[in-house]
Every structure is written in C-alpha cells, then in structure tokens.
Amino acid sequence: MKAVVITRPGGPDVLEIRDVAMPEATGDLVRVRVRAAGLNRADLLQRAGGYAAPVGSPADIPGLEFAGEVDAVGPHVRMWKVGQRVMGLAGGGGQAEYILAHEGLLVEIPENLDFVQAAAIPEVFITAHDALFTQAGLQMGERVLIHAAGSGVGTAAIQLAHATGAITFGTSRTASKLLQATPLGLDYGLSDQNFSTDVQRLTHGAGVHVVLDFVGAAYMAQNLEALATWGRLVFLATLGGSQATVNLGLLMGKRIQIRGCTLRTRTLEEKLAVTRRFATHALPLLANGKVKPIIEQTYPLHEIAQAHVKMGENKNFGKLVLVLD
Ligand SMILES: NC(=O)c1ccc[n+]([C@@H]2O[C@H](COP(=O)([O-])OP(=O)(O)OC[C@H]3O[C@@H](n4cnc5c(N)ncnc54)[C@H](OP(=O)(O)O)[C@@H]3O)[C@@H](O)[C@H]2O)c1
C-alpha cells in the first residue's frame, strides 16, 4: 500500500510516498481503507523530529485521523462489517491507504458527510469537545476565550461552544481569520496583542470562565488576567513557548485552575472513553449540520509537502485534508 513516510527528521522535503507492507486485521482490530486523512500541526512537529509516535503506532507514517470504509475485521470484532463508512483517531499511520484501528475507536460517518469532511473531524472535534466540556467543564451561558481561533481545533471549539449556548471570544494573529470565524459562532474576535484588556472591557471586568490555549508561555500572563474568579485554563499546546512565569498571587486570588492536556499520548481506555463521549454529545450536531468541519483545502497524497508548507506558514483557516484514491 502507499503511505506518506517521514524519511528522516527535517523540512517538508523529507516526506515521501512509499510502498509499505499492508497491515493485517487481527483480534479486535479493524482494517480501514482510508479515503481521506486530516493534516494536523502535530504532523509538522513529528516530521521535524520533535514528537515521536506513541508505542503501537507506526513510527514513520504520520496521520492522527482518517475516514474510509471497513475493509477487513479481526476475529474478535463485533461492532463493524466490511463496507461501513467510518472515521477515527489514530496515534499515527492515518496517511496511508490502509490503517488498523481498535473497533471502539471508530465512529460511523453520518450520512450527510463525505469522506473528506469526515477526515477533518476526529482529531480536532474530539480534542475541542474533551477540552471544553470534560476538562474545563464549560457550562451553558459561560464565557469562553479560544485562542488560535482559525486553527483546526479552534474552529471546532468555537462551533461546539456556540452550539451549547456559551459566549465565545477568540484571538488570532490574522485579522481575516476572525472575520471568517464570525459565522461559526464567534461572538467577539480579538487581536492577540491586548486580549486581556479587551476581555475585561467587554465583560465589564468580569472576565471569561474558560480559556482554551494553544500558545502557552507568550499568553500566560494575559490568560490569568482575562480569567474570571474560579476560571479554568486548559493548555493544549505551546506554540509560543513552554516555560512561563506565573503570578501565583493572581492564581490564588481568583481560585484559577490550570490543566494541561494531550490526546495522542492517552491510554487505549482513555481514548475509547473520549471517543464515546464525542459520539454521544458532539456527533449528533455534526449529523444535523449544526456544526461542521471547516476545510481550507484538499491535497492529493503526492502533494503532502505542499500541505505541510501551507500549515507551517499559518495560512489555513480550519483543516487541510489529504485525499487518497
Ligand atoms: N493537546 C492535544 O491533545 C492537542 C490535540 C490537537 C491539537 N493540538 C495542538 O493544538 C494546536 C492547534 O492545532 P491545529 O492542528 O488545529 O493547528 P493549525 O490548524 O495549524 O492552526 C494553528 C494556528 O495557530 C496560530 N499560531 C501558530 N503559532 C502561533 C504562535 N506562536 N502564537 C500565536 N498563534 C500561533 C496560527 O494562526 P494565526 O497566527 O493566523 O492566528 C496557526 O494557523 C496545535 O499546536 C496542535 O499541536 C493539541
């Protein structure tokens, strides 16, 4: 089968399409014929040598999410039949013609979505749903600040928060992305320069209940200033640095909770649970069109390097998706 292969750590030029061995479906594993696979920021990090695949995932084939048809099932599989349309999370290996997945990590693709749309869902919608509702406990009517509002995860988070009745604030370094996010349910689009002052002004000093952050150190001080009393701050990435100075007095005074979170490194049991929660609470909104995957561009497999360049230059609003024949 054909697969994207990271031949060595480096820039987009280290990516090659190679013929690799096809995996066999054993035990409770399902083999999926991948029709489309989402690109994620983590793929760029892995390509550069900074984010090794977890044990059990292919070390050199990237791809954290995929959509396709069930092609073969292991002898213990009970949930799926050959031919069903499925999407799912992976620790890696999604950018290949076939992938093996635990049967409980697959979700049936709603009828209204095609493979490209489905491939843009698992990583960003499961991450956003888990971070907002399970980790931060976002409630109806609360105010939430979502950084990198035009990112794949950001566009999912804005829609899920809006759909649940939260009031959404978002930042981006690119003004046009804030305009693009408005129809998704972004109530207040802010420059990232003085966002804490803007949040305080717009909320009459009350602050936001939840912050979803991908930037880290560079936003730390402003995040604490923007939060309300009993606010919750969830870190999902450190695009702007991982070493920060924290004003512990402010943290204590506001009774702020800070939590860091990753999806890829979780145990199988944790991934099964997070997938089930997504399927129960978020999938119906995707199936009835209330929220939707946001796709900037699709690429054939052999243009994988171009997709990496585009994401590396921060030019995507929403997702970049690879299409496999
Ligand atoms: N913890 C987890 O489980 C988990 C799961 C999924 C994703 N993530 C992380 O979440 C982030 C978003 O992922 P994605 O795939 O949705 O990314 P993406 O679509 O590539 O979007 C990332 C956006 O972040 C903004 N950005 C980049 N560097 C920045 C910086 N130094 N300071 C401020 N903004 C910056 C850029 O937008 P503008 O500059 O135009 O604003 C960029 O387009 C990534 O860092 C990813 O690794 C974490």
What features would you describe in this structure?
The protein has 325 residues and is α/β, with parallel strands linked by helices. It has 2 domains: 2-121 and 293-323, Medium-chain alcohol dehydrogenases, catalytic domain (Quinone Oxidoreductase, Chain A, domain 1); 124-260, Rossmann fold (3-Layer(aba) Sandwich), CATH 3.40.50. Helices cover 29% and strands 26% of the residues. It contains 11 helices and 15 strands. It has helices at 41-47, 115-119, 122-135, 152-163, 175-181, 195-202, 220-226, 248-253, 268-281, 283-287, 304-312; strands spanning 2-6, 15-19, 29-38, 65-73, 85-89, 98-102, 106-108, 143-146, 167-172, 188-191, 208-213, 227-235, 257-260, 295-300, 319-323. Strands 3, 4, 5, 6, 7, 14 and 15 form a 7-stranded mixed sheet that branches. It has a 6-stranded parallel sheet with strand order 10-9-8-11-12-13, sandwiched between helices. A hairpin with an 8-residue loop joins strand 1 (2-6) and strand 2. The mean pLDDT is 97. Residues 40-42, 123-124, 127, 148, 150-153, 172-174, 177, 214-215, 236-237, 239-240, 261-263, 311, 314, 316 line the site of NADP nicotinamide-adenine-dinucleotide phosphate.
Task: Encode the helix/strand succession as letters.
Answer: EEEHEEEEHHEHEHEHEHEHEHHEHE
Helical residue percent band: 25-40%
Bound molecules: NADP nicotinamide-adenine-dinucleotide phosphate
CATH superfamily of the largest domain: Medium-chain alcohol dehydrogenases, catalytic domain
| Low-confidence parts | none
Per DSSP, the total helix count is 11
Q: How many strand segments? A: 15
Q: How many whole angstroms does the radius of gyration measure? A: 19 Å
**Structural class designation:** alpha/beta
CATH fold title of the largest domain = Quinone Oxidoreductase, Chain A, domain 1
- Total of domains: 2
CATH class of the largest domain reads Alpha Beta
Shape: globular
Strand content: 25-35%
What is the CA–CA distance across the termini? 12 Å
**How would you sum up the major sheet?**
7 strands, mixed
Query: What's the overall average pLDDT, rounded?
Result: 97
CATH architecture descriptor of the largest domain: Alpha-Beta Complex
